[in-house]
Amino acid sequence: MEVVILADDAAVSRLAAATVSQLVCSRPDAVLGLATGSTPRGMYAEMVRLHREGRLDLSQTTTFNLDEYVGLSPSDPTSYHAYMREALFDHVPVRRWHVPDGLAADIPAACAAYEREIVAAGGIDCQVLGLGHDGHIGFNEPTSSLGSRTRIKTLAPETVEANRRFFEGREVPRHVITMGIGTILESRHCLVLALGEAKASAVAAMVEGPITAMCPASALQMHARVTVVLDEAAASRLSMRDYYRSVYQSKPEWQRVEVDAL
Ligand code: GLP
Predict the structure, then answer these.
(1) Among 46, 101, 134, 231, which one carries the catalytic annotation?
(2) Among 79, 112, 215, 252, which is most buried by a count of CB atoms within 10 Å?
């Protein structure tokens, strides 16, 4: 895993947006895997800014989101459909975007179809991921099979609590549809973002802990190309953080993503 430690949310968001933009510049019809949650908000804001400045064009790009709540319609403001429209798609037109259908009558069939659509699009070139406090990616809670595919999951009580702030007194959904860990591992590049002290333990378990279903993100250690972009607080429990800093500082020019070069 490449671990990049930056000063703050703004720097993480800029590098994440630049990484995605550089991919789309070199391959306009790239397939992006997208995430929701508070962490990637700054990245989307940065992508909208790049688009307004004429430096990012997603009009030939296809996207697939990781997950959606079961039972929420796309027009529900707390759905991930609504999140994605508000954060990105209302501002930056894409060729085609996909978010799992939380209202699907036949959920297993819808999940299988989602997997087929990803394959038909040519697979995901870059999958953006946030990280749950318990080490989940997408909505793959601890003990999820490391080979899992898109399917229905029941949220852990801690995740329901963490999501309560978005529901303003309404009942928080317990069930979700999420890409599986096996689905995520098939992406060509995984770009994991984490911010803040509250994520520090999960980050340390993901990068330096054992590969275990108790920390689903640790499965990313098996992936050939993962970039983990962290602020200082999220990196604070990594025992090898000085090494990661020196690796990043001495990276060859040709491997660098330049945030201002787009
Ligand atoms: C939810 C999402 C994940 C996200 C996680 C962390 O569980 N399904 O994709 O990574 O929340 O959210 P936040 O970025 O708000 O901390």
Answers:
(1) 134
(2) 215
Residue 254 alpha carbon to ligand 1 centre in Å = 32
176 lines ligand 1 (CB under 6 A): no
How far apart are the two ends of the chain, measured CA to CA in Å? Answer: 25
Q: Classify residue 173 by its DSSP letter.
A: P
Strands (E) located in 100-207: 126-129, 151-154, 175-178, 190-194
Asked whether the beta carbons of 84 and 65 are under 8 A apart, the reply is yes
- Verify whether residue 76 is a known catalytic residue: no
- Among residues 67, 101, 115, 125, the one annotated as catalytic is 67
Q: Would the pTM of this model clear 0.90, i.e. be above it?
A: yes
Domain made up of 2-250: CATH architecture: 3-Layer(aba) Sandwich (3.40)
CB-ligand 1 contact for 178 (6 Å cutoff): no
**Tell me: the pLDDT tens digits for 196-241?**
999 999 999 999 999 999 999 999 999 999 999 999 999 999 999 9
**What are the angstrom distances between the C-alpha of 27 and each of 67, 127, 207?**
25, 15, 29
Q: Where are the domains of the chain?
A: 2-250
